[in-house]
Amino acid sequence: MAPLTILYRGPLSSCDYDCAYCPFAKRRDTPTQLREDRAALERFTTWVTDAPDQLSVLFTPWGEGLVRSWYRRAMVTLSHLPHLDRVAIQTNLSCRLTWLTEADLSTLALWVTYHPTQVSRERFVARCRELAEMGVRFSVGIVGLPEHVEEARRLRDALPPEIYLWVNAAEGHVYTDEDAAPWHDLDPLFSYSRHPHHSLGRPCRTGESVISVAGDGTVRRCHFVPQILGNLYDNSFRSALRPRGCPLAVCDCHIGYVHLEPLGLYDVYAGGVLERIPHAPPGGTARTRSVG
């Protein structure tokens, strides 16, 4: 079977942070909801363990997953599977890091976001340096809010130079060239996030070699297209996998547009698509194509 990339998002929607731009800030799941999320993730982990496919998995929880023991355990378990090329998760890095000593770090990676209003830069950078010393693959990013430009510069100066710093365009924010310039200086790939991409009818790997999986096993081509392709657990999704164009007018989220074939981002992020690490070293040498 052809390699398959899975973006998994279970019921979890709670977070320990209180970011003003996030609808899930300080949201609390009930004990029942947490049990449901744990059961769903354990079921998914079992499926991945027994799957005949060569797989890559990115966890994209609405909330913060790694403060929950079952996400840490799933990451460790999946990292040791011989048919898993990569397991990664989006995280604010607020969890303890000792669990990583049990993982296969040749397979595991982290997509880490810095939230300046929630954690001191010193504490965050210390954790990043700890990751680097452990040999963990990770990228670090920040939301490109105007008030965070100076903090982002200080973060770049404090991080190990080999760590890629990405910048996400703030949702709903229109950047003039002058506004965008400092973010481009920090992240040479910022233009991909700055401008929504016209995607209607354009070829995209989602629905063919990339799928989105919900906690109940519902399979969609990606998180942003509601059409259901089938279910993971009865294998009904497999007959729906095929090349297809995007049905949406635009795509403006990295975990979506990275799979748009005309953008060529699989070349830019070769070997690091899920953890958002470009193939070329940070500093503007990553190979890019025109965007739009």
From TrEMBL:
InterPro entries (alphabetical): Aldolase_TIM, Radical_SAM_STM4011-like, rSAM_sf
Q: What are the TM regions of this chain, as residue ranges? A: none
**Lineage: superkingdom:** Bacteria
Gene3D superfamilies recorded: Aldolase class I (3.20.20.70)
Residues forming coiled coils = none
User: What's the protein name?
Assistant: Radical SAM protein
Tell me what organism the protein belongs to.
Sinosporangium siamense
